[in-house]
Every structure is written in structure tokens, then in C-alpha cells.
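Hi R.,

Here are the chain sequences for the assembly we discussed:
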Amino acid sequence: MSGPGRKEDAVDEPAIVVDGLRVRRGGEEVLRDIGFTVRRGTVTGLLGPNGCGKSTLMRSIVGVQLVESGRVDVLGRPAGHPGLRRRIGYATQDPAIYADLTVTEALRYFAAVLGTPPPDVDRVITQTGLASSARVLVGRLSGGQRGRANLAVALLGTPELLVLDEPTVGSDPELRDELWKLFHDLAATGVTLLISSHVMDEAARCDDLLLLHRGKLLARGTPEALRARTGAPDLEQAFLRLIRGRSEATR
Amino acid sequence: MSALPTTRRILTQLWHDPRTIVLLVAVPSVLMILLRYVLNSEQRFSAVAPALLGIFPFTIMFLLTSVTTLRERTTGTLERLMTLPIGKLDLILGYALAFGLLATLQVVVAAGISLTWLGLDIAGSVWVLLLVVVLDALLGTALGLFVSAFARTEFQAIQFLPVFVLPQFLLCGLFVPRGEMGWVLGAVSDVLPLSYAVDALTQVTRSAEIDGTLVRNIGIIAACAVLALLLGAATLRRRTP
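And here is the predicted structure of the full complex:
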């Protein structure tokens, strides 16, 4: 879907630029001076313990979060810009999809809102492995299936940036593997993906990692670089060392 | 029109919930039948029935819309829609259109039963009666959409029924004519939209004449419904804390 103009700026311009981002929720500082860039056509993993601000950061990038200060630019425009609404696919951690519609009906509605043609609905159903439950009410799906239906909505209209909050949670290992293949296939076509997770073997499959801890960006880099930097045998250990190192530094 | 996908989606959701449709269509009619036999006289029934034909759908649509809209807010689908290219007013109009259609169905059945089986006798035109009653139901829909913005839970949304609807019910002129109220109550009654609905319905019952007052009252109901829809759209936020 990206025209020739977009392909050109895809080369030199990052997909996401965050600088000095601060977010306050209920009097508490949830994000503290976050800054990073995400290259186009990559899979970036956003990692960190529960409550570290992953979802808030994703909401800020999608443009639904009230932010206190800082800059968030997405695909060359400020986050939340009306022109971005067709270009970003967003899936929240809790499936935001009508429980009293069938998978197809729910997808058709979102496709109509996006103005994408009906065959797109069949495409995303196939991509997320929901073909056999396309006519089942969303409310009757299993947790993993509902998560995939939620992901399917984000894939509608072939967006240039996908912001996915824990998209594989509740899926069995085989399906998780398929979804990660899908993510890399999409990245190969130039789509940028920002995916949050707390599963470390998923982190290893990302091109780039952002480690968030208590609202601060603790580390970033490729999985190999983070392992090498901490001298840890695996990513889980690498992250534990980074988090402990920081707690000791602040003590 | 970009409101239509939302209308279709809401009607599809209801299609999967036949019990709600049956309740929606049947309840006002059953209440009218009950009223007719409680009063046990066609004359007394004809005196109050038009006002209640306006009030029952108003109340039911208010409740139904506020709970449905609130569910959209609490399940995260509203936030998702706010990230998509849909206008706030398109979404609200989509709702109004879907529930307006249901309200029309509800009203036509209740009015049809009242006018035939229950012997409701009105001096004015049946069409004017239907118009006012459908506008009342739309007003209930619009108010329900608006107040759902101030409820955090479905329990709170239901509590808004006694807050927003029952005072209008007491002050609309059904129990005591509006002219006989003290100046304070009269003034409150004057700013409540349901009062104008009951005034209009009473007039349709008593006279065949379509005068300036009737047109003005119908205009006020329609304007209140539009205002509530605009306020409802204004409560939608793309960015939230």
C-alpha cells in the first residue's frame, strides 16, 4: 500500500522517535524521560516486568495517552495526528473486540471504519489462523483465539507500523512460533513492529530490544549486544543483571 | 454516510441477542396493556396513555443506550475506535440511528396496540402522535449516550435512570398539570425536555389543530435530542489519562 514517496522516506527516517517523554497517571510518574528511535522494517521488543510502563509507552506512541511532556513522532508526524490513523495498527493487551459479534462480523466492522475492501478481512483471518472459528462469536472463543482476533483487527488495512501489546499471550508454542514468523514476514515487507512481551525466548527473536523498568528505559540494543554487555549466558540473566545493577546504583 | 457501519454493527450485535429485542419491543406494549386494565376505563386510559406512550420508550431507550455505550467504553473498543479514522459525530450518529430504528419499531407496536385493541381515542392526527413519541425515544437515546460518559460502571449507569429520568417524570405534567405547579417547580419543569413532550402529546390527544405551540414543542424536543447528541460526541476523547 505504501506509495513510492513513502518508500523513499522509509530509508532515512525512523518509524518512531521518542524524546524526553514523561507521563503521569494518577499523580505518579509512569514514564520518566524516555528517549529512543525505532528503525523502519524492524521488529522491536519492548520488555519489562508488569507495571513498568510498557502499555503506557505504547499508548503514547499510538496517540491515545495524555502525556505531560516530551516528543513522540511516528512515521514522520506527531503521535495522534489524524493522518496516522490509517497507518498504525494497534492491539491492546486486553482484547478490545465486540464479544457479541462473530469474528468475521467484528472484523468487517473495523474494516468498514478503515475503508479497506472486504477481502482484507479474509486475509487477516488466515494470517492469524482463525479460519476455523471465523463464524464463532468472539465471546465464545478461547483466550488465545480472542487474542488473535484482537491481533487480526490491528492487521487490517496493511498498516506501516504495528504496535502490539503482548500479542502472543495465551497462545500455544506452535501458534506462537507461527505468529513470530508472521511478524518477521511483515517486517521483511517494510512494516515496523513494536511488540511488548515478558517472555524471554520471544525477546531473542527481536531485531532490537527496549528494556523498561519502573518507568525508565534501562537498556536498549540487539539481543546479542545485551548478552555481550552483561556477560550473561541468556537474555533472562542479562535482564536480571541489568535490573539488579540499577537497583544497586540507586541505593 | 460514515455512520452506517456503526449502525449496522450495533444492529448485528442485537441480532445475536434476541431476548433483548423481544424485551425492547414487548415491554412498552405490555405496560400499556397493564395501564389500560388498571384504569379499567377507556376514557381515563385515553387521558394518560399518550403521555405514557412518550415516557415508556424514553425511559427504556435511555437505559439501553447508556449501558451499551458504557460497555463500549469499558471493553476498550471505544479506545480502539478512537485510534481509527472514524469521526466522533459519525460514531454517535451511528448509535442514534441504530437505536432510533429500534425505538421506532417499539413505538409503532405500542401505539398500534393502544389505538386499536386498547381503544385509545385521540382528537389529533395519529402521525403527529407517532412523530412526537419517536422523537421522545430519540431524546432518551441521546440523553443515554450523553450521561454514559459520567458513569464508570454499568451499576452507576443504571443509577442515572432515577437521577435523570424520574424527576422529569414527576415534573412533566402527568401527575399535576404544569400550570398548577409553584413557580420553582414550574421553572424546573420548563427546562426539562420531557415536559414539552407531554405538552405536545396532551395537545394531540385533545385537539386536531396543529398550531404554533405544538410545532414549537416538537421543535424543542428535536433540538434537545440534537443537543444531547452533540454533547455526547463532545465527551468522547481521543487521548485519555
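Residues 4-234 of chain B form one domain. Chain B touches chain A through 23 residues (CB under 8 Å).

Let me know if anything looks off.

Best,
T.
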